[in-house]
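Dear support,

I submitted the protein below through the web form. The confirmation email said the job was done, but the results page showed an empty box. After a refresh the structure appeared. I'm attaching both so you can tell me whether what I see now is the final result or a partial one.
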Amino acid sequence: HYLRIFLEEGAEIDEPQDYLLRVRGVSGVELQAETLELVPPVVEFDADLQASFSVSNQRGDMATDVLVRFYLSASPELVGQDLLLGETLVTNLAGAGEVAGEPRLSLPGRAGLLATLGVATLPATGYVIASVDPERAQPDLDRSNNTIATAIEFTERCIDDDPRDNEGPLTPTVLEPADRRFEGGVICPYTE
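What the results page shows now:
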């Protein structure tokens, strides 16, 4: 950046001069985890999960190759024993800009899920945490806003008691409340 000062007409160069400096935008990088949503919000163990997230840069300089990691945790705070579900790289994040992504995350099997959440049975609630720049590779001015968490409920596998093999979530037969059955498991919402 350069600063050029023009003296008023008739001013002596040797005299001290007052000047006004106006600056727009602030240089630097300040990353912030903005949003994190999960689809579906209730999921079975050993499944895939679609995450939707956004990260912003609150300052004016470009941030490149910003790593975002996703963890499974028993609490909304990131701790050392949390399980890494996946990661993605934001290649360019402009100053005062925001970038969104939709990575697919793989959940652990039943034993790994129970151990990570610290529970003996399902259903259970856990948290998926997005951590922006976890390796501290960026010259981020404020790291206190680099994580965001969202709750997720885990259930046992559903029991498909439907003799038809042509039905699924997109082609369900709607059940009447009196026809629904529950026998020690989770009934699939699209079976009869």
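Response: this is the final, complete result; the empty box was a page-load delay. DSSP finds one helix and eleven strands in the chain.
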